[in-house]
Amino acid sequence: MPSKNYLIVYFILVLFGTVTTPLRFSYAFNNMRRGARNLHRALLLSLSTTTLNFLDTTPIGRILNRFSRDVDQIDDGLQMSILQFCNCLFSILSSFSIMIISQPFVLIALVPCGYVYYRLIYFYNSANREIRRVSSLTRSPLFSLLGEVINGRSTIIAYNKGPAVMKEVFARLDTVFSSSYL
User: Fold this and answer.
1) Cβ of 139: how many Cβ atoms within 10 Å?
2) Spatial separation of the C-alpha atoms in residues 19 and 25, rounded to whole Å
3) Does the structure show a pLDDT above 90 at 119?
4) Three-state DSSP class for residue 105
5) pLDDT confidence of residue 180
6) What pTM value is reported for the model?
7) What b/e sequence results for 17-53 when a residue is b if at least 16 CB atoms lie within 10 Å of its CB, and e otherwise?
């Protein structure tokens, strides 16, 4: 292909990317907003129809954590994860196609590299799942304590227990943040 044809193909691809990027963001934003709204409604309906035994045994911090964390992940985390995944996928596919077209012998090296990469991802996902579980478990008591502090602030002020309560809040914050550094 002459160099002019390469330039035309490149220009068309850039134009296509420029036109589809705002469409992609608006489509993703609307779907994520709808998903967060549906999840929140389902959680609220489930919580309002649950038994009193569940409400008595489950700390309020765990319930608030579930509402805030799940909706936040759909609002922010999931949208960015999907966009980054698509960008990375298209980048990898285009790089592989260029490598394979220019040097077909690259396929011999790609097979073992793909296997090693698969094993690393498997190990990372298992460890990441456990770290998220621990982080969620350490966050619930903090939400519970914050709810108790807000409800009992007049008592805390009346008995001059502010410094002791703040010491407990900071201790629980340290526990939450220590799990996020893993």
Assistant:
1) 21
2) 11
3) yes
4) coil
5) 66
6) 0.48
7) eeeeeeeeeeebeeebeeebeebeeeeeeeeeeeeee
